[in-house]
Amino acid sequence: MTTPRIVVMGLGNILWADEGFGVRTAEALYAGYQLPDNVEVIDGGTQGLLLLPYVEEADCLLLLDAIDFGLPPGTLRVFHDDAVPAYLSAKKMSLHQTGFSEVLALADLKGALPRAITLIGVQPVELEDYGGSLTAAVRAQMPPALTLACDTLRQWGAAIRPREGDAPQLNDASLRLDRYEAERPSASAACRIGDARVLFEEEN
Length: 204
Fold this sequence. Notes:
Layout: E1 6-11, H1 21-32, E2 33-34, E3 39-45, H2 52-57, E4 60-66, E5 76-80, H3 83-90, H4 95-109, E6 116-122, H5 136-139, H6 142-155, E7 161-162, H7 172-175, H8 179-182, E8 191-192, H9 193-202
Parallel strand pairs: 1-3, 1-4, 4-6
Antiparallel strand pairs: 2-7, 3-8, 5-6
Helix pairs in contact: 1-6, 3-4
């Protein structure tokens, strides 16, 4: 059986408080777990159609994002397969979700939609705090979101396990200041989180 190519994609804007939930959770997944070669973690940011090649490469796609469910702030929800593009098309919280719903639609039109898609999303508390960190209620949902993400990856056949020893546990506060953040590409490019981390480790 062919090993599936799995893409984990954090979506959102880290400059606007809880909009950064998806990217921060993706970073925490990469920092805290040893992932096999067939799993790639992407900081998708707000790139819209620029993310199409990553989606087309994936057999299985795991999305992490802040989503307006119309539920109490901090609520965590999970959607699977056909419900993901349907939900993103129906409920748009910001322009990046409009753009990403178009990515999924175009991938589907080209016959390149991943065979399995899961969206793990949190209801944001604050979106208007430019430069602000995740709110306490949303940050508290990162551990359960990581658990759901790990469960999903294992269901897709990925052998993942927590990193051992003194592996850095990146969190919302430290990522705002350290060199890892400085190694991000410009806002016009998506970031393979692993590539950015390699740059950081090689220079330190």
